[in-house]
Amino acid sequence: MIVQRQLLKFLAQAPNSCIPNKSWATIGVRCLQTKENPTSSSLDRSTVKTFTLSDQTKSEVKHHASLANYWWDPLGPIKALHALNKLRIPFICEGLKSQHKISSELINTTQMLKNQNILEIGCGGGILTESLARIGSSVTALDLSEDLIALARHHLALEQNQGLVDRVQYKIEPIEHHASYRKNYYDAVVISEVLEHVDENDKIEFLRASVETLKPGGSMFITTLNKTISMWVVGVLIGEYILRAIPIGTHHYGKMISPEYVRHILNTLNCDTVLVKGSSYNFLRNYWSWTNTTSLFYALHAVKK
User: From CA 126, how far away is CA 170, in angstroms rounded?
Assistant: First the structure.
C-alpha cells in the first residue's frame, strides 16, 4: 500500500512537474500551419492556412520534432516504433482481410493492400506510412509538425520510387480539419501510438472526427497504451527514466486510455469493436510480441456501421 500511495502521488505530480503534455489532436481551430496540397518538403507560404495551437500542444509538437534527426534510425531513440511495424502491419492486413476488404488474389502478396485508401493520423516522420504504401495502399498521412512532415517527405523522395511517392500524401493539419472535407472517404483509419498523446478532454472529439472520415464498413485500427499502474511503471518509470529506452517526456499516465473506454467511445460513434489484442515490448531486445493481457499495450480493430 505504501508503494502504491507513492506511485499515485508521483502520477498526480508527473504530468506537470516532469513530463510535458502532448496532443496530436486539436479541434478544428487548433493546430499548426498547414498546406493543403504539398508537393515538396518546403512549405509555400502563399498557400499556408493558419490554425491556432494551444501552448500545451505546441510544447508536445516541439518535443517530437526534436527527435527528427533520429527518426529514421532503427536503433535510435524511437527504435520501438520501427520494431512495432512487425506487429501493426500484419494486424492491419489481417483486419481488412477478416472484413473481406482484400481481393483473394492479393492475399499474402507483396501488394496485399492494393486499392486500399488509408488515412494515418499522427504519422510523424513516416515510419508506418511508407510501409503501408509499400504493400500497395494509398496513404494520406497527417501530422501537426512541420519539421516531421518535411522529414517524411524528404525520406520518401530519397526512395526514388515514383510509384511509392505517388501513393503517399503528407499533410500538416489536425484530423478535425481534415474530416471537414473528407467525410466517409477512407477504407481504413490508422491511429498508431497516438491516442495516448491526445489530451484527455479531446479524445472523444478526436475519435469522432476520425470516424467521420471512414466509409461505412470501413475499419479503424488503434495501437496505444492502457491506463494502468503497471503500464506507467513499465512504460514511463522504467522505459523512460531508468532504461532511457524512450525519450523522457514522451508518455503521461493521465493521457493513457483503457481499451474498455475506447470501445465505449467508438460504440457511441456507431462503430463495433471486433478485436482487441494485448502486446508487450522488451526494451532490452527491442522486440514486440502479442500477449494474452491488455494491461500494458494493446491493438484495437473497430468497424464503422
Answer: 9
61 contacts 51 by C-beta, under 8 angstroms: no
d(CA 266, CA 283): 31
- Over range 274-291, report the average pLDDT: 97
* 211 alpha-carbon distance from chain centroid: 15
Q: Which three cell numbers stand for residue 137?
A: 495502399
- Reported as a single tens digit per residue, the pLDDT across 164-221 is 999 999 999 999 999 999 999 999 999 999 999 998 889 999 999 999 999 999 999 9
Question: Which of 117, 96, 118 lies closest to 107 in space, CA to CA?
Answer: 96
The Cα diameter of the chain in Å comes to: 59
| Concatenated DSSP letters of 269-290 | TTEEEEEEEEEEEETTTTEEEE
**Mean pLDDT estimate for the chain:** 86
Taking the C-alpha atoms of residue 64 and residue 73, their distance in angstroms, rounded to an integer, is 15
| Grid coordinates of 223 | 495501437
Question: Among 117, 128, 138, 139, which residue's Cα sits nearest to residue 89?
Answer: 128
Q: What is the pLDDT of residue 61?
A: 82
Name the pairing type of β-strands 117-121 and 186-192. Answer: parallel
Say how far apart CA 47 and CA 30 lie, in whole Å. 18
pLDDT of residue 59: 76
